[in-house]
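In response to a reviewer's request, we include the raw inputs and outputs for one of the modeled complexes. The two entities were modeled together in a single run.
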Amino acid sequence: MLIIVLYVDDLILTGDELLILSCKKDLATEFEMKDLGLLHYFLRLEIWQRSGGLFVS
Amino acid sequence: MSTLKEAYSGKNPDLSHLRIFGANVYMHVTKDARKKLEPITEVGIFVGYTDTPHNYRVYFPDSGKTVMRRDIKFQEEKAMKCSLERELHLHVDEELLVPKDELQDVDQPQDEVHGVEESTHAAPTSRGRKRLTEAERLAQDAEKVVGPPTTQRRQRQSPDRYTGYMALMSKCVVTEPSSFEEAVEDPTWVDAMVEEYDSIVRNSAWEIVPRPEGKSVVGSRWIYKVKQAADGSVEKYKARFVAQGFSQIEGIDYEETFAPVARYSSIRTILALSAQMGWHIHQMDVKTAFLNGVIEEEVYIEQPEGFEVFNSESHVCRLKRALYGLKQAPRAWYTWIDNYFTGLGFSKSEVDPNLY
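The model returned the following structure tokens for the whole complex.
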């Protein structure tokens, strides 16, 4: 399972970790991409990812 | 006497967030950012406002940085009276004291300065200072409207005592050039333009063709933008070459322009879902995204200023890829990435066309 949200030129990927990583690799060969790692800031939402869950402000 | 707003709505504008320009500012240094015996506060100078309410722009002479902060304490009583000049003479580098005729743009720290003028309780010294720069700016604005004067005019000189203030502003407020002529003077911006031009060429966004007869050619220009990191420091100098899409004619230069973006609720839903499932969320962004979009219509734009092809200076660019500013650019990009994802075997959500 892999979910992608597209916001113009920003992408959010979530789902199975292995699929995310391979999809990132595919994308990077197709487009000039910047990998921002784990999501922490998106459309004015600040997001903290911790093992127990996720904090949004 | 009442303000305009009072006369109109019966209420006075809220000025409680205004502070005296140049006031000392004390910022708490958080525990993890300092060592045991290091001071727990840092002293800075208040230099302006930001778009976010109650966020202030603070200049720290020790580190030479300007940052946006809200967790700060103001000390306005001792504010003005020489403190600014003193600080400046201590900290501002010599090279910042540029010749006066180059100071044209330095005193245009956008709206921040406007805000300060409304500060009715500002100390006399600060107001004097403000009024002068305001007058100067007005004079410059007037000049721009009227154009260069044909008659001889008096050499305008700002008194020496303001040099410090201007140098401070030039250090805090990074100005963005508004034209190519301005930008080409500064190596930083030239580099930025070369970078943008390279990525256009790398994506073979256009081919150079002789100017077509009877076809309209869309104008083009350079846009310069300083990208700031979250704390207000300069992250990147970005030059962008854009098409002046406003001169495109519907039905001739473009057909469809609509491009969907993800709905906020789908983003929140995905966040909730991944929290529930314990998934990590990764983020990527596509550099020069629009350059991937394919342009199907026949669109010509002018060559980028300063990058005209030698011996073909009057040629124009026939676009193969989308450029920022072009009416159909977002749609071209969306079409492209949509094809890419569905080609990979992703299925598109039925309720949000940006969810795969």
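As requested, we also summarize the result in words. The longest helix of chain B spans residues 124-146. Chain B touches chain A at residues 199, 230, 259, 261-262, 264, 266-268, 270-271, 273-275, 278-290, 292, 330, 333, 337, 340-341, 344, 346, 354-356 (CB under 8 Å).
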